[in-house]
Each structure stands twice: as C-alpha cells, then as structure tokens.
Amino acid sequence: MSVKPTAAAGALLLAACLMPTGARAQTGTALPAPVVIDPDANATGINPTGKPVILTAPVMDGQAYLGDATVTLDPGGRASFSAERLLTLLEPRIAAPLVARLRTRLGESGQLDGADLRGVGVSIRYDPQALQVTLDIAAPSRAARSLDLGDANRRGPVTYAPPADVSAYLNIRGSLDWVQQGSDEGLAAPITYLDGAIRAGGVVLESEANWQAGVAGPDLQRRGTRLVYDDRRNLVRWAGGDLQTLARGFQSAPEIAGLSVSRFYSLLDPQTIIRPRGSRSFQLERRSVVEVRVNDQLVRRMELDPGTFDLRDFPFTQGSNDVKLTITDDAGRRETVDFSIFLDQAQLAKGLSEFGFYAGVRSPLGRRGPVYTNDLAFSGFYRRGVSDRLTLGANAQADGRGWMGGVESVVATSIGTFGSFASASHVEGSGSGWASILTFQRTISRSSDRADALSLSLEARSRKFAPIGTITPFNPYSYIAGASYNSGITESLYAGLDARYSRGRDGEPDAGSVRLTGGWRISPALNFTADVGYERAGRNNRLAAFLSLTYRLDRSSSLRSDYDSRNNRSRLSYQSYSGSGTGAYNLSADVERSDIGAGVSASGVYYANRAELGFSHFGTFDRDLSGSTGQRTSLRFGTALALADGAFSIGRPIQDAFAIVRAHPSLKGADIFIDESGDSYTARTGRLGTAIQPSLSSYSERNVLTTAPDAPLGLDLGEGSFRLLPPYRGGYKLTVGSDYMVSVVGRLIGTDGQPLSLVAGQAVEAAHPDREPIPLFTNAAGRFGATGLAPGRWTIVMADADKTSYDLVIPAGATATVPAGDLRPKGQ
C-alpha cells in the first residue's frame, strides 16, 4: 500500500489529538518481546516526528475486530507491538498447536517477525492510512469455532446491577363476601392471605399464612415456612422446613417437613435450553454467507471468514425439525446441506441432569398449620441425558406404611419419541402392585406454519398398585389405551381426532370414547370451534357436542357464545381489558341458562399504582329467570410492603423478585416512571418518593427503564436503564439520578510552565478509585473539558512522557459547569 507522507502525518496527528474516539498517541519506548512488522516499500514518511511514537490501534482479522494493541512506529516506518498481546488475540482464532509453535519461537528469539507468522499460515501488516494492524489467516490454520444460533444477538460478558444485601416483602391479599340471598346470608368474616420473604446473605426465609377473625377455630393458619439457598455455580437448590415436593411418573407429592435438594432448570436457570440442541460442523475455504433454516424458517444469516465451524443451539420446536444450510462463497458458488433432528420436550441434552430429593417427617396441613408427625418420609427422583437421543431416570418414595420405586426413559428416533414409566409399590395391609405407561409422540411438519401431531399411549395398573400416602388402593381399570391426531389443514382450519378405551375390572364396566375437534377462523374477527364426542360406559351411551363462536369487537374486547348439549347449556360472555401496568383493568360478564337453572356473573380487576382492586358478583335464578335463588358479591384487594437496603415502598403484590426505585436528591422530588411506554407505565414514585417493580422473575435477565419527564433541565438521571439478573426472592434498590453530573473546563500547565498541548489523560475520583476514570484531552492551547464528574477531590493523570498529574477539587453542591482555571502540576 502506498500512502502520501502528508496524508499519513495528518492521520497520525489526528490520532494523537482524539484519543477517546481514535488512537491514543504518546512518546516513549517499545515494549519488550515485540512482534515486528516489516514496513511497506512506500511507507517512508508515515512517522514525520523523527522519533518513536506509540499508538493504540485496532487489530483486525479481515473485517472482524479482535481488540486493541499498543503499536510503536519508528522513524523508518516499521511497526511493532507486544508479541504476547498478539498471541492472546490469535489464540481463539488459530489451532492450538500453531499457537504453541509461536510461543516456542518467541521464547527462543525474544521476538516474532513476519517469517515466524507466515510459518503458521498468518500474514501481518500495518495499514498507515486506517491506523490499524491487519491479519490474514489461512483457512487450514483457523481453529474450529462454535456458532450459537439460539440468540442472533448474543453478547459478551454483561454487567448487572447488584441486588440489595438485605431485602424483604410482605404481600397482603384480602377478600370480603356479602351474601344477599342464600343459605349463609349476611356479611362474611373477611379473610386475608399473607405471603412474604426475607433475603439476606443469599439465604431466603419465606412463609405463607391465612388469617380470618370471627370464625370458629383458630384465626391464623400458617401454611408453610422454609429456608431456601440457591447454589448458582452448581445449579442446586437447598431447602429446609415445610417442603414443596414435586413428583415424577406415578409418584404422589406428599407433605413433608425436613430437608430437600433439587435441580430444576426452569427455576434455577430458565434461560438455558436443556433439550438436545443439535450440532453440525462445516468448513469454509473462502469467505461466505451462510443461511440457516429450521422448518423452512430463516433463523440466522451470517457472513463468515474461512475456517471450520460448529453450529450449535438450534432454535428447534418439539417434534421433527428439518435443517437446511445454504452456503454462498464470495465467488457466488452455492452449496446446501440438509439434515433432520427429532426432539421432545421431556428430553435432556447429553450430560444434563434434573433431580429432586425430599426427606423428613409427614406434615399434613391442619387448622393451625402443618401437623408434624413422627412418620418418616422420603420422595425423590433423578433424570439424566445419557445422550442427545436417550434420557433415563429413576424415582422412589417411602413412608411408615409403604414404598414405591420406578424407572423412566425417553428415546428419540427418526420416526418419533418413545417415553415410558414403570413402577412397583407396596402398601402395608393392602399388598404389592405395579404400574407402567408407554407413550409415542411424533410431529410431522407439513409447511412453514403448519404441522400434524400424532400421540399414542398405553397405561396399565395392577389391582393393588398405589403411591405412598394411599390408604386403600383403587384402580378400577386394568389398562387404558389412547390415541390422538391433530392436523393444521389450512391457515384458517384445523381438526383433531381423539380415541380412548379403558378395560374395567371388579365389576367396573369397560369405557370408551371418540372425540372430534375442529376450528375455523372465519375472518380475522370471527372464530368457530366445535367438539363432538361419543362416550360409552357399560350400557350407557351418550353423544355430546360443544360449540363455540367468538367475535372480537376490537383489539381489547370480545363476545363469545357457547352451547353444550349436556344439560342443554347456553352461555353468552363478554371480556375486555385496557392497558398494562398502572391504570389497567379487566372486565368480564356472562349470562348462562341450562336445564337446571340460570346464572349471571360479572367481575373486574383494576391495577392501581400501589394495589390491585377487584370485585365479582354471581347470581343464580330459576330456569325461566322468573325468580332469584342466590346472590353473592365479593370485594378483593392486594398490596405489598417492601424493603431493600433501607429503602421502603408500597406497591402491587410481588410475585418473585422486585425492585424499589427512588429519586436522587438532585431530582428535587420529580416523579419517576418505571417502564413507561406510551400512556402506560408499571409504577410511579408519587408522593411516597419510591415505587415498586413487582414482576421480576428470578434468574431471568430484565431491563428496568426509568424516566423523569418533569426533572429539571440539565440534570443527570444516572443509568436510566438498569440491567438486572434477579436472585430468588431478591430485591433491588435503584436510584435514579446521580452526583456525577458536573462538567469541568480549564487549562493544564506543564512542568515547563507552558500549556500541555495535544495530550490525553483521565480523571480519577479520590474517594472511589475503583470507579471508571473520566477521559479527557487537551487542545493545542492546553484547554480541556470533562463531563460526568461529582463534587469532591479528583486526580488528573496525563499520558505525556512525565505522566504529569494535577489536583482538581469540585465544590460541594456543584450541579452544572465548573470553571477550573489554570491547573499546575502537583508540587508546583
């Protein structure tokens, strides 16, 4: 490349003056152990200063930015920079043995040059016009790279706002019933539902209770209390107290007080895809455009350099997935690769495991709360992805009266997925038994937006099979067989067929049914669905039909009419909703008539800034509507009290995690809106000065947006957007506004008494040296400007040869631009 000396000198001067947006320049010496880049034949004059100059320049792999390097230009136009830095940038790009060869060569000679790099298939050059280092890497030298398709905008490391060290909340929900007509006329005793949690040091104490005064028996019933700790590194949840057991297969979910350890990806890492994600490799000899389609849907288009690539994390749907890769190189040649993968929701990817183990004593819920017995109990299961096509599991339960154990499997094949459970049990006084179920699922893609689904099942139980907690086993059918097929016929028409047969025992008659379902989207506003079934149990036969017609009045309201031939029931209903967040509401009403009577009901919910308010009314009438037989009205409310690191607020009930938003004093009481969008918002601070975002989900990334439209002009709102990854039941204290809203202008004088011109530097806060420095640079007259500073003492360190430093003091209460005047080096 040929560059005119004047153009190169101008580019170099620009780099020296504009460090924050370009390359940073200073004088000095080259770093040890360099990689030396031989100059182009016509590169004379790119450094007109007559002495070595240091730049911070980008290193590029073709069009890909790898990172920055501190490059030294000598007066002859030769460039060099740290060889260790080059190896760090090359390590993820070329094969590991080639990196090892370069490190050996660096150790032997103390530097690397162009010949060393060409020996491993890499050429390097310095572009004096673009002020960058460019690498050309041969395709065989490149390391295999993985391309995740699940997120086309996958980012690097993300910084999240830290949660509060100590947080707590209490949800209070209440209900008041007034019976105007019926067996219990009058005003019923109000009932209050309480649930809350305290989180400190990563440990959560949570509890639930009911309170109702004025009724027979205890006023307060505690439903459960437990300690929970999540080990996020190993994705394990530990709990102690009144356990919330989950079951698999034929297990029951007994009420146990004790200890548990579990792993459920949906709870601990909901953003992880636990199903097999598929993986395919391909190699590119030339720069190419690669298009990836799954079930004829384009999911990713990438422009890739030569090399070997592994495609992972396909955005598959349940069932059969057809994958097509279309590769078009820079010469226009096209190649396609096709393959199919069958997936099922119950599968686990290879190496992943889910489990739940619960041990303690039986604790059935009594009138005051859990009743702790001396009956030991255990329940647990374990599942693991043995391969991407095979998932195996086992489960067991036991208490003082019996036990049950079983196994499960999920096998993916080219025709569909087979699943099975098999269990054996023993109940004291009743005997032993067994049970098993076999299922088959297949999804058949017919077009880009339509598919057919086939499902088969066969379940069998012995007469005396029972999970723990069963006093007397009851299994009226020896086996139950079922099959269903659903099809998307057209974009507006679908149909399904379902059949089931049960073989009775001990006098129970055989039972069977056939059901046909269908739907027709008549127009964008009108939908019709139908369900027609035939049932037979012994000598009793019945033909039943259910018909429904839905008309959408507008985007937020609809009318629906239903008819059910059983009891000759007809129903007309209306639903409407408006907005989201504060000010939103839902309304519904319906009238129903059947052979056994008639009824009218209405309900609504209003979402206020700090509470949810609801009502409902239900009335029953004679079949001909000639007289009323019952009338009941209910009023409901829900609110939450929350604390996070000393900040307090009131808001709508909290579901899991939450954030308290408050204003910095600099906003002078201006109202803050949370997640404002158009005319809607989640919450606002109002007179209380704080507000709650109540609907954060644990371990799911969330951006909380804040605005203050009435804040004084020129004030800094700080972050404005907070990126969160909430822990379980965690709380946040988020402050809108900042002390870092001061701008400073002044002039820097060098040690020689002359203005310090064309030098970059940074300002570091003395009270918070770990905070990111504020960049600044001087013009030819030594003048500088810096924004985003706060009142207090700062140190300015410049990047000249002497590393000149200055003291800067911003007075307390400063909120705008502060003139610093002439600043002289420390000690002068």
Keywords, separated by commas or semicolons:
828 residues, mainly beta, 24-stranded antiparallel β-barrel, 7-stranded mixed β-sheet, 5% helix, 54% strand, globular, signal, FimD_plug_dom, Fimbrial biogenesis outer membrane usher protein, Fimb_usher
Structural class given helices, strands, pairing? mainly beta
Number of helical runs?
A: 5
Low-confidence stretches: 1-31, 151-155, 316-320
Percentage of helical residues? Answer: under 10%
- Distance between the terminal alpha carbons, to the nearest Å? 48 Å
In terms of DSSP E residues, the strand content is over 45%
Quick structural summary:
Strand 35 and strand 36 (585-594) form a beta hairpin. It contains five helices and 54 strands.
What does this structure look like?
- With 828 residues, the protein is mostly beta strands.
- 5% of the residues lie in helices and 54% in strands.
- It contains five helices and 54 strands.
- The radius of gyration is 35 Å and the shape is globular.
- Mean pLDDT is 83; it is low at 1-31, 151-155 and 316-320.
- InterPro entries: Fimb_usher, FimD_plug_dom.
- This is Fimbrial biogenesis outer membrane usher protein.
